[in-house]
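B., you asked whether I could sanity-check this one before it goes into the benchmark set. Here's the sequence:
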Amino acid sequence: MAYATVKVADLVAHCMRFYTEGWGYIYGAYGQIWTQAAQDRATDEQTKKWGQQWVGKHVIDCSGVWYLAMKELGSYMYHGSNTMWNKYTVNRGSLKSGKRTDGQELKVGSAIFTGNDGEGRNHVGIYIGDGKVLEAGGCQHGVILTAVTLRKWTWWAEMRYVDYDGGDVPVPTPTKPTLRRGSKGEYVTLLQTKLIQLGYSLPKYGADGSFGAETEVAVKAFQRDHSLTADGVVGKATWEALEAGKIELYTVTIQHVGKTVAEGIIKQYGGTMTKEGD
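And here's what the prediction gave me:
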């Protein structure tokens, strides 16, 4: 059967939608809405532990990102990372520290794999440019962006039915993702920093990049104060309200404190530190 060839820019833009809309992860999924009934029937330990947060949300797994994006763009990709590697690549090789070991440039839209020849390729993402890989990163985290330089990314491939030679591909500018309890990363740190600046304290953990119970309490308080649905989920409306928050910003320099104290201040309030004399 003949399948359509997809422009790499369209492929990357389509995959980015799964990230910006805050899609979750369930093994074997490819875009379904996760239901309470499905969660109640779950036998996978990770799904039982983390899947409840995705009830009512779109869910997908790592190769499902490729499968669904290609399908919705009128083409095809196998749903399974090892078979993708074995049967659907047109050019491939190894990665080291985020670079192709053959010396060629890593193309936007390349599939990025983990695994080895013995175990097979057991996880896949898509390189979106600017050193970032989009992946469905497990049931705890959902669809996330990670650095291509992470040690787990060890293989690259250009995939069948994708046009990698259609000219320059604009690197997408990620919009802020939907965040909820269990989310981690730079956008959680940004959220926590804004909450602290607006007077919603996080006294125990500060801006640590991990969305836990303390952050959820602060988010709900912020949402109530701004006439938003106080569900603890940071979506478009909550981000806009955070951005619109009027605050007076000051830079405070505290000198002559020990490393542990300095790290504690940065953890709670954000910022940087410099060793005196450097």
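One thing to flag: DSSP finds nine helices and twelve strands in the chain. Otherwise nothing jumped out at me.
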